[in-house]
Input
Amino acid sequence: MTQKIGFFIPEFPGQTHIFLWREHQALAELGIEAEFVSTSHPPKAVASHSWAEEARGKTSYLLPFGARDTPAVLGELMRAGPSGIGRSLAAAASAEVRSPVGRLRLLAMIPAAAKLAWFARRGQWTHIHVHSCADAANVAALASLLSGIPYSLTLHGPTLEGYGPNQPQKWRNAAFATVISRRLFDVVSERLNGAKPSRIAIAPMGVDLDQIHRSRPYVSWKPGEPCRIFTCGRLNPVKGHDILLETVEMLRERGIDVRLQIAGEDEQGGRGYRTTLEAMIRDKRLTESVELLGAVSETRVRQALEDAHIFALASLDEGISVAIMEAMAMELPVIVTDVGGNSELIDHGVDAILVQPRQPKEMADAIEEVLGNEDFSRRLRQASRAKIAARFHHRISAQAIAGFLRQQEPTHA
Output
């Protein structure tokens, strides 16, 4: 029997959401019909995937909140009655927030929570799974207090603090949770002791190996030819793109004609951190060597991976990077920083290389070593896809969610 749930993703479909699209498909294969719900539309510049239009058509949005939503919201509040409304007001009053403004902001989420409850009742969802521990988790928690529908969380990281205050309340009332790395599991266990749900699984996101594979053999770099390096990550300081630019500068000074492509956009649709990187590229006279691709489709990412000699990522923190997984699945030499959960993904020197963050010289040295040692490069490439196939395929997280859902009694909103 198919179970219907809400699949709650903030600003869906965004540039980093390909793995959620895959998870949604994997849940369907497991008998879970997950209906998309989101806070609001993302900026158009970051909704670049080939499936984005289809996803938008399948998604119900909480915002903007219009006059036509008023009857549904009032109806859900009436259905919740004084007890449900009282529970939600008490939760907002007791929430761990940093200021009176933060508490008022939480109170203002109650109408959105009522709208979410209305979506759940209309769709006959038995559960809401939230792919965020930020405000979306607050909305789901309030909706649960109003309607009784259970909810769960996925923590993507790279930190817990990055998802804002009120974490104990979000987690305490969740039916279950998944986290994408052992490191994040340890963080939750330490900082939310007594507030975390009894059921938590470590379930990394993954890649679909049926879709992500080479169509032609890897071609090694030869001295005198351009060296193509590819990286993929939103344009945000945490991704370390500025450090990678320094790496490119060093390699070019060593006589290697590096051509770097960066796939990803900033959260402002090109008006934010992109401008800082553009200025840095100009200042370093790398305009002919570095290309900012913006938010591009998964097809374009795979093409770039197939064309590249090296995948490099100089991030300062990560949960476990799906972009790295995709590069490993494409049998590329991968050189990334030893941050966050990357060491749970990579066996250093076996299937990829880890370097210390904020050390462009160390990354440049590692890239030069791989380029100059074909045997080493081949061993890395051969081991990388095998690692992903064994431990990071796209069904792992869906299997964890489906398993937890089967353990709980269905509750109709």
In short: The chain is about 45% helix and 15% strand. The CA atoms of residues 232 and 263 lie 5 Å apart. The chain has a mean pLDDT of 95. The chain has two domains: 3-205+394-407, 227-391.
